[in-house]
Amino acid sequence: MLSSELADLAGVTVRTLRHYHQIGLLAEPPRTSGDYRQYDVGHLVRVLRITRLTALGIPLSALPEVLDDPTAAEELLDQLDHQAAAEIERLSARRANIDVLRRTGAPLDLPLELSAAHAEPTQGVPDHMARFEREQLVLVAHLLGEDGAAGLAALLDVPDDSRTALTTLTKRFYALDADTSDREVEALIEDWVEQIRPLVETAEVISSLDPLGAELLDQLGARNLSPMQHRAMHMLQQRLETDQPRAQRRPHP
Description:
By secondary structure, the chain is an all-alpha fold. The chain has helices at residues 3-10, 14-22, 41-55, 63-68, 73-104, 127-156, 160-174, 182-201, 211-224, 227-243. It folds into two domains: 3-68, Orthogonal Bundle (Multidrug-efflux Transporter Regulator, Chain: A, Domain 2); 107-248, no CATH class. The chain is 66% helix and 0% strand. The longest helix is centred in the middle third of the chain and has 32 residues, at 73-104.
């Protein structure tokens, strides 16, 4: 039979047959007078065995030994079983993550630890600012690592009365513009510090960002915030650092 006929019977492509020849899995058959490869049923059986073994997850590099030595399969099966178990665990974790995202309605690009804390954007916040909040969380979670992201999620999981107060402060912040007076900005910072001081005092995550991480967050703010909002963020950061115990202060570059 010709290569196209063998490929059809075995359920593979002619290119696959050529690859098997190149890596030594399938012996080259004799050629006809017209220089066509002429395969027989032995080649078909060999290809069927190869496709069966690869379907089990056996890599092509291990096939020569397994094809020619049946006793070599037992140890390989143990390895395949461990790999399959790990893959099942990974896929089960992925399904669990998908279930959480469905239930919370959180953005897909948000780390799972923060899903509950940011299920919905703050009501009344402009779309571009809601996007900024999400991008900020994505960046902070990455910079803090898995343990730090969990700590940040705990920090953001505030009681309803505190959440309401923070929402009001957030709206005041997003209303800042070039016409806002210094007195209004300073009043906002005072109210904000007063509201979040108890959280900051118990939160190690505030001081765990290195100088590069702080700089990246500052760049993100500069890209998304108005000059007045960016200035207010700096003022808030300076106040929080001043209020923190010296041992907890984030080092400066």
